[in-house]
Amino acid sequence: MKSFLRTTALAALLSLPLAATAAETAVSDISVEADLNSIQNATAANVWANLPADLKSTLAVQLADQIAPEGEEGAQIMIDITSVELASSFENVADLADSRIAGDVIIERPGDQYDEAYSLTVNAEQAAVLLPADADIMLLAPGSMEFYNAMVGAFANNIAEKMQ
User: Fold this and answer.
1) pTM (2 decimals)?
2) Which domain holds residue 48?
3) How confident is the model at residue 106, as a pLDDT?
4) pLDDT > 70? residue 94
5) What whole-number distance in Å separates Cα of residue 68 and Cα of residue 55?
6) What is the DSSP string of 47-115?
7) Tens digits of per-residue pLDDT, 98-107?
8) How many angstroms separate the CA atoms of 30 and 123, rounded?
9) What CATH number corresponds to the domain at position 125?
10) I need a labelling partner for 137 at 20 to 30 A (CA). Which of 13, 35, 131, 148 fits?
């Protein structure tokens, strides 16, 4: 039965364009590093203190159907958050600045699959679509949990889409 599934999976993979093969890549490890010392707002610093762990778990949830079983080879996703810029509420309302998360993403795939390395920046405007329906991004403080969850979710979404 296992041989039949492998043969069927191989036939399906060969019938797809090369770019689509990334969807079949299992994920064996996700690591996130971040230096959050640059956050000056004390309230925001408390909320954003768990960014590495929260980003890792958010991405793992989004890729749940692609997580490799224990001991099996899969892609390794390594994220290094290089900056977190948080605009003050006044700056957001005045549209003088955008809050953003920026980082470097490396996806090392097993075998002869292609690896990827890219820089990713997600801003408040991109995260706004992940806010609750009654929330207004322009009225949220950068230290609010709604804002934080939307920013982390938007960053994770981008990486998950690359794995689809």
Assistant:
1) 0.77
2) 25-162
3) 98
4) no
5) 19
6) HHTTHHHHHHHHHHHHTGGGBPPTT---EEEEEEEEEEE---HHHHHHTS---EEEEEEEEE-STTSPP
7) 688 999 999 9
8) 22
9) 3.40.50
10) 35
